[in-house]
Amino acid sequence: MVKKISKLKCCSSGVKYAIVVARFNAFITDQLLKACLDEFSRLKVCSCEIQVVPVPGAFELPVTALKLARKKNIQAVICLGAVVKGQTFHYELVAQESARGIQEVALLTGKPIVFEVLAADTLELCVARAKEGDRDNKGASAARVAVEMVTTLKAI
Questions:
Q1: Pairing state of beta strands 17-22 and 76-84?
Q2: Which of 83, 85, 92, 94 minimizes the number of CB atoms within 10 Å of its CB?
Q3: 26 is a domain residue
């Protein structure tokens, strides 16, 4: 399901952001998404300039980010996910390949593709990086990085 966030009147700055968020570990990724949207609001990014696209898990982030980044109106894509180490090698595969794929999207498109896939040894470490109301929440950080990188790349 693709959601367009539209609470505020659009200020028509022309900048468009996409957020791809993994549904796996949703109790963590929901907090990342909320903090990201709150930070965009604090940064005066109009909600009508943000598109949120949920995907099943972190492994699906790169292909979705690529599809979005290839759109002319999208200037930056944020990828949010959470992978917690388990008892098998699956954790390493998902974390490494989502990171590699997301970096590849940035290099292929020349657009900022912000990587905020939490990869941690424990659930507690992920939860600590996604605390509600905390500006150090990695979702909030992702919004700041996206805005800064769009500005930086426009200036080059």
A1: parallel
A2: 92
A3: yes
CB 111, CB 74: distance < 8 Å: yes
Q: Which pTM was predicted?
A: 0.90
**Nearest to 49, CA basis, from 74, 21, 81:** 74
**Interatomic CA distance for residues 78 and 129, integer angstroms:** 16
Residue 1: predicted pLDDT = 52
Give the chain's end-to-end CA distance (angstroms, integer): 35
- Can you read off the two tokens belonging to residue 21? 């968020």
Q: How many residues does the chain have?
A: 156
pLDDT digits (tens, 9 = 90+) for 55-93: 999 999 999 999 999 999 999 999 999 999 987 778 889
Q: Is the residue at 10 inside a domain?
A: no
User: How is residue 136 written in tokens?
Assistant: 């150090």
Mean pLDDT of 130-147: 90
Calpha distance 47→33 (Å, rounded):
13
Give residue 96's domain range: 16-155
Q: How far is CA 149 from CA 23, 41, 64, 144, 156, in A?
A: 26, 17, 20, 9, 11
Cα(76)–Cα(95) distance, rounded to whole angstroms? 21
| Residues that are catalytic | 90
